[in-house]
């Protein structure tokens, strides 16, 4: 009886966590550069002094789906999409973080920021645009500004976007949706092989139909685990009644 409770209880807990993960994916179908959350589970025996006759379910490889999302043309000079693998680098209070959201902005002080207001880093630190300039971003991440009054050739090199490409298993997602290097690993180095497409944005790699199917499947799984818990309770009550009248 208690073995049934172990399996159903832990299964229900993991199903609830997966339900929350799928719901988060669905909520970010339209989020620029979003990477879908994935989960995997396995049965693990309960370790104790007795034989391993009980088991529970644990998450084994929670992580992200790093497949590229669809690219859409915007024509906006400050929009960039990573072509293939790679990341833009932003500066947070906790250090460097990585994002695929290329809808860049220019703050009132001229600093290039992410849509969330975080400084976007170049190879030499934060990028600052001269006031009133028009911007162009090359495929290699080089940011140039055309300063008013400098004529057709008055291009000023602002810097180069810091583009990195760490291994997927070295990255962890933070609660803010940004990725960072795993504990104990140094910040990723700039990778000259990473390229960007100016005037484009990468959409979320979440497929809305697949996410809806996953939501239905997880809901059914949770219902099944809750039914198993109810059945175990009913069986225990029946056994108690039999012992009471024995």
UniProtKB/TrEMBL annotation:
Any one Gene Ontology cellular component term annotated for this protein: bacterial-type flagellum basal body, rod
Nucleus recorded as keyword: no
GO biological process: bacterial-type flagellum-dependent swarming motility
Residue stretches making up the Flagellar hook protein FlgE/F/G-like D1 domain: 81-145
Keyword Membrane: no
Subcellular location: Bacterial flagellum basal body
Main subcellular location of this protein, as a coarse class: other
Domain Flagellar basal-body/hook protein C-terminal positions: 198-242
Record keywords, A-Z: Bacterial flagellum, Cell projection, Cilium, Flagellum
Residue ranges of every copy of the Flagellar basal body rod protein N-terminal domain listed in the record: 5-35
Subunit structure: The basal body constitutes a major portion of the flagellar organelle and consists of five rings (E,L,P,S, and M) mounted on a central rod. The rod consists of about 26 subunits of FlgG in the distal portion, and FlgB, FlgC and FlgF are thought to build up the proximal portion of the rod with about 6 subunits each.
Family: Belongs to the flagella basal body rod proteins family.
Listed NCBIfam families: FlgEFG_subfam (TIGR03506), flgF (TIGR02490), PRK12640.1 (NF009280)
Protein name: Flagellar basal-body rod protein FlgF
Gene: flgF
